[in-house]
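Note to self: keep these together.
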Amino acid sequence: MKMTTNPTTQPTEKSSTPLTERITTLHTSDAVVSSTYSTHDYTKFSFVAGNRAISRRKVVKLRESIKTNDLTIAYPIVVDKQFNIMDGQHRYIACTELKKPIHYIVIGEFDIRVIADVNNSQSRWNAYDYLNAYCELGIHEYKVFAGFMKRNEFNFSVTLLSLVGKLGGTLYNEFRRGNFKAGDLKIANTVALRVHSLKEHVPFYKNREFVLALMKCMEHPDYDHKRMLKKMYHVGGSTLKKSTNEKDYLRQLEDVYNWHTKDENRVRFF
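Structure:
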């Protein structure tokens, strides 16, 4: 028996017509809430101070995506009334490099906190993105943070720990909101000097948990850093084992500090 094919089920070839030419008017009573504009005038747009730094890797990836299937009209960039780019700066650069039109929508005024929230919901901002953003805006506390981190070659967590004396989710949230306040810089600089003084003895001297343990030792009223350095010199930092646990480091530092010390002169940190 000869099979017949229903013409309505025949597969159709993928259209090579650009998406912009395939968009049709929708006959509906739904309200129109925004308008999308299009232009080749790239000079009218500006970047916002404090927005995330441009990633060339992301731009290249977007360029390849646009070359394959240009959906930029479906994802317009967002600008304010002064044509400052609030969202979509990577798409903007990719389109300019490809000589493609910029599709955009205009929304009211934003500050950097709103921009961060919008971008974070799409591609999560990390701590360094927030730091760079607030430094770009000239916020003093964040410039102090960045300067301290650069001078000491600490990572974000150790810098925060040194400047504030603690870590925690609430602290990170306040940092992201632009509410960071540095503690006593004299204490922070003392912490940094003592951390660096252990460089020759402890390979992982800038490890976050190790620094936290050292700061706990420093809080003890009988702590003497010269004594710690002397014992480190004799015992050797090689006796310390790398760990992911602050309490483990604290126990090890206590052992070094009390090495060859009479019972009455021993100090308990742990």
